[in-house]
Design a protein that fits this description.
Layout lengths: L2 H7 L15 H10 L5 E9 L2 E10 L2 E12 L8 H8 L10 H4 L8 H9 L1
Antiparallel strand pairs: 1-2, 2-3
C-alpha cells in the first residue's frame, strides 16, 4: 500500500488492525464489504537478505475467515508454508514446479511498493 492509499482509507485513524502495520479499521471494513463478491486476502511481506516477515488474512462473505497469521520466514526454506502462500492457496492459487503460490501469482516481480504502483500505471 502506498502512503497515499493508506491516507485515503485510514478513516482518520492510524491504529494498526489485526497486527498489520498498514491496515486501518476503515480499510478492514472495506475489505470485509468487498469480500461479499468473492474471497480476498490482505498480505504484508518484508524481506531483507532472504529473511523477513509475512502476515496474511482472508475475508469471504463479509467476514474474516482465516488469520491473521504471521511468522518470521526464510525465503528459501519456509515460504511455501508461509502466511502469504497459505492465504493465496485459500483463494485458489496453486504453486508451480520449483516455486510457491507467492511466485505463481507474480508477487516476486517487484521488490518495492513504488515499483508495484508504477507497474499499475503502465
Amino acid at each position: 500500500m502506498t502512503d497515499e492509499l493508506v491516507d485515503a482509507v485510514a478513516d482518520g485513524g492510524d491504529a494498526e488492525v489485526l497486527g498489520f502495520r498498514r491496515l486501518s479499521a476503515g480499510f478492514e471494513r472495506m475489505l470485509a464489504g468487498w469480500s461479499v463478491a468473492g474471497p480476498l486476502a490482505y498480505v504484508e511481506a518484508e524481506y531483507f537478505g532472504g529473511v523477513g516477515e509475512e502476515r496474511a488474512a482472508v475475508w469471504a462473505d463479509g467476514a474474516l475467515v482465516w488469520g491473521p497469521l504471521d511468522v518470521p520466514v526464510k525465503r528459501w526454506f519456509s515460504r511455501p508454508v508461509g502466511p502469504v502462500s497459505q492465504a493465496l492457496r485459500r483463494l485458489g492459487a496453486r504453486r508451480g514446479l520449483g516455486g510457491d503460490e507467492f511466485d505463481a501469482v507474480g508477487l516476486d516481480r517487484h521488490r518495492w511498493t513504488d515499483d508495484w504502483a508504477a507497474s499499475g500505471v503502465a
